[in-house]
Amino acid sequence: MSKSKSAVLSCDNFSWDGVEKKIYKTETDNFRDIHRYTLLGDEHSELNSETRYFEIQPDGYSSLEYHRHPHSVVIIRGSGSVILNDELHSIQSFDVVYIGPETIHQFHADNGEELGFICVVDRYRDRPSIPDDDQIRNTIRSEKILKKIRK
Ligand code: MN
């Protein structure tokens, strides 16, 4: 396997040299106003992980999903909230979020500003699943969170 050259990706106002702003996902459409920036991806295949930046515009949200692989997330812009199974947490810049395996999760930019975060994941990982109504009912008891989720 060839090794990619060491590099610095300079950042100017949440835009990185040579990194394209892309739509969040192509397989599903259960999200709103979110974009994906792959900072370290396929061109650095010697890394066991991928480093991405996601940005959600005010009132947007990521897809409600779960999967076996865990997520490591660091908020670097704005604030909002995250649903982790039956818990709802407020989050703001520089907070760190760990999303364990099989946790139903969704990020919301619900604090009147964008929510931007770095997310590091294994390069080889399972595809996200969308919870069905039974799984949601069995996992999430909080009425507040049931009202908040978007699917
Ligand atoms: Mn996920």
Distance between the termini: 40 Å
Specify the biggest β-sheet. 8 strands, antiparallel
Would you give the CATH topology?
A: Jelly Rolls
**What form results from the Cα inertia axes?**
globular
Oligomer: single chain
The CATH class: Mainly Beta
- List SSEs in N-to-C order: EEEEEEEEHH
Strand content: 35-45%
Could you name the ranges where pLDDT drops below 50 across 5 or more consecutive residues?
none
**Gyration radius, rounded:** 16 Å
Total helical segments:
2
What is the second-level CATH architecture?
A: Sandwich
Ligand roster = manganese (II) ion
Fourth-tier CATH superfamily name: Jelly Rolls
Number of DSSP strand runs: 8
Question: Overview of this structure, please?
Answer:
This protein is mainly beta. The chain has a single domain, classed as Jelly Rolls. Helix content is 9%, strand content 40%. The protein contains two helices and eight strands; from the N terminus they run ββββββββαα. Strands 1, 2, 3, 4, 5, 6, 7 and 8 form an eight-stranded antiparallel β-sheet that branches. A hairpin with a 2-residue loop joins strand 4 and strand 5. The protein is globular and about 50 Å long. The protein starts with 21 loop residues before the first strand and ends with a helix. The model has no long low-confidence stretch (mean pLDDT 95). The site of manganese (II) ion (MN) has 5 residues, from loops.
